[in-house]
Amino acid sequence: MAVVASAPGKVLMTGGYLVLERPNAGIVLSTNARFYAIVKPLYEEIKPESWAWAWADVKLTSPQMARETMYKLSLKHLKLQAVSSSESRNPFVEHAVEYAIAAAHATFDKDKKDILHKLLLRGLDITILGCNEFYSYRNQIEARGLPLTPESLASLPPFTSITFNAKDSIGENRKPEVAKTGLGSSAAMTTAVVAALLHYLGVVNLSSFTEDQYHGRKDASNLDIVHVIAQTAHCIAQGKVGSGFDVSSAVYGSQRYVRFSPEVLSSAQNAGMATPLTEVIDDVLKAKWDHERTKFSLPPLMTLLLGEPGSGGSSTPSMVGAVKRWQKSDPQSSLETWRKLSEGNSALEMHLNTLCKLAERNYNVYECVINACSLLTAEKWPERANEPSQAEIVKELLGAREAMLGIRYYMRKMGEAAGIPIEPESQTHLLDTTMSMEGVLLAGVPGAGGFDAVFAVTLGASSKNVTKAWSSLNVLAMLVTEDPRGLSLEDNDPRAKEITAAVSAIQLQS
């Protein structure tokens, strides 16, 4: 009866800061880095005395962090109460569990509620696993004396344990030594847990989804329920209503995104202790969710690269706060900067969409031009335009580069005005160097910027040369690429897949 669901991490390519306010859009790419949630019954059968219980047992396990927490779930109030824990609690998973079960209560009739009650009395055994790409293993690679290359990252076992600092003298909880890479682990984790639970409890059926259903062309009501519950759980757990692009991409995949109005979550935010959780969830399910999402993915023969410069992380909330203070203190200048950024974002989106259409119209010509440009720096690309159809493709490529340079300029300007390093000087040097390499279309800082990571979009097979150049610049290229899929129901425990693959590899070698 085990249900395994996975949800992807993300890269916000355009729309940093702007996506916080409607109607500004952001282009968010989902990735091959996925968070998994495995849900199964804790007990094989209901014990006879269980019928009198008002509580159900819930076990949450995070093997990578060596954490296991036991809870009692009140079947009346649908609230979790921790009874034993090896570490600090996870509010994202706790809210995901409570809200998913409340969604079942809010939508089921009496017969289904009786079945739900029996299912919950068997307990819930929940395991969460995140791909290595969500975490930084740079320090471990350097400590082993390995080169800063994707091959070194690939040598780590899947779902590698995250080491911990020792407890301090006053007994505070230990914290992971391994930093996050900014792919939205909490949103992917929350979405995976909600999806697995809603499917396990029978609220939704995620058995088979087509690409059209992910993007609303056919019935996507099951995905929409997952989205609403995951957004609510994630926002309440983090204590604020964010833009939600990370959860939306975790559910639906790569997209052009415009945020929902924060008011749709007012009932969840303002709910008191006396308000039944089923009423709160019923309200958010019936609210008018006005977010907008449009199908988007990189044009063919283009590769997303992410690099970790190793210059320390950045606090997105504090950077967002600084930008908001700047907006209040200098509304005229900030409005003009945001207008220019919005224009740049729209221009980049337009050029990339046009390239997709040109690839559809005549793929052979498109492939020829992309492969030729992958061997050259951008200023030499026009040399490969010997006929109008080729010139049109090169024009769009150069237009996309120009739009990205404009976005970077105004992001730097905003950072300087707000007093924060949105594109720090070290990143500027790295990005300029990257954009001058053969076959590089774009380079920038994703999301809110700072020191976390850089991204590049490369043409053809040029990505290998970029990762080598990054390594020489002390930048670790991550094993992250675009995967436009959203959440997915998996066949097996992902760890079993990795073991099978490892055994097969050993047999081939012998």
Short description:
The chain has 510 residues and is α+β, with helices and mostly antiparallel strands. Helices cover 44% and strands 17% of the residues. The protein has two domains: 3-135 and 180-296 and 491-495, Ribosomal Protein S5, domain 2 (2-Layer Sandwich), CATH 3.30.230; 302-478, GHMP kinase, C-terminal domain (Alpha-Beta Plaits), CATH 3.30.70.890.
Question: Can you put this structure into words, describing what you see?
Answer:
It is built from 17 helices and 13 strands. The chain is of the alpha+beta class and 510 residues long. The strands form two sheets. Strands 1, 2, 3, 4, 5, 6, 7, 8 and 13 form a nine-stranded mixed β-sheet that branches. It has a four-stranded antiparallel β-sheet with strand order 10-11-9-12. A hairpin with a 5-residue loop joins strand 4 and strand 5. It starts with a strand and ends with a helix.
